[in-house]
User: What shape does this take?
Amino acid sequence: MDRIFPTILATLTRHNRHRVDNLKWGNLWTYNLFRVWEIVFWRRNGESNQIGDHIRREGAQLSRHYADGREEIVWQRFFTWEALICYYEVEIRLALKSFCLFLKKQFAFRIVPMPALATPFGAKVPIGYSFAIAADTADTATTSGTPAVTRSYTVTGSNPAIYIATMGDVAADNQTGTTYAGTAAGKIDAQVNSGRTCSQWYLSACATGANNMVVSGGSYAEICGISFSGVKDTGTTPDSHGTSTSFGTVSTTVVASNCWLVSYCVSSGGGSNYTMSTGTIHLALSNEASGDSGGTVGTGSQSLVYATGSSTNWHAVILSIEPSPASGPANLKSYNTNVLSNIKSIDTNLIANVKSFDTNV
Assistant: This one.
């Protein structure tokens, strides 16, 4: 069966083909696409040359310059379409890298390196940047029952944090603990109001992948989660937090710059499901809801506002999460892999004291 496509192509092109048993994958997307081609159609006999440098001393635009003034002309010779396409992929990657460096100099927004994405064959995305905090996943339903109540939740991304919201159906703060992937989350607030308890828990630098959230204590509980990436590792302590029993608005005093807000509210229920007039709703039921700011907020007093839904015995909790700071070597000693004793400029721009490059302080 695996000979059908190679046989058809060999007949059409009048060139015999052979199976390649030990294919090697590379770091270029186009190179790996050609390897997939060879799995399906096999390799044409005699096809092995990829690329060569042909050094001449005259008549070309592409040249190499040396410190002693010599100049050598480099002619690129491509023996296959694969070699030509792979060559230009490399050129495009280098151009994109230079363009991203240019954007970094022109704009002042805070950025952190985004982890390289890998294909099944090992090829990586050449370069990328992202804002410090990004929404990860969020529950749109809860799991309820008699504690301990367990709910599966998946966290992805780098520098993650998870926000766990729980409701207790008694007029007392008697939920004793919450864990994610076996690690205890910090209990930040528990707001009690006429028979229902509204609690928020927080854990930064949490595990990634599919794991269980578990809430313990009390006679009844509901549990749901919201997670983020690009968050500063502060253990179980958020940037700030607060509570409210005044329907609709819940506020906190944000300390750090570029924080996000995340919140949870509970009521006696009845009527339509909750919406948010300020923020992004995730869990939207008639007796409980959760959401976040959907982006960064300023420092000082900041709020999320719930709309519609029941106002009967309404109470809410809120906290702010801080973005992950830039990190790296204490002293920059190299630029573009060139080790230097003392960097005074980058791309001809004089710098009195270089403290960071590509967010590495």
The first helix runs from residue 4 to 13.
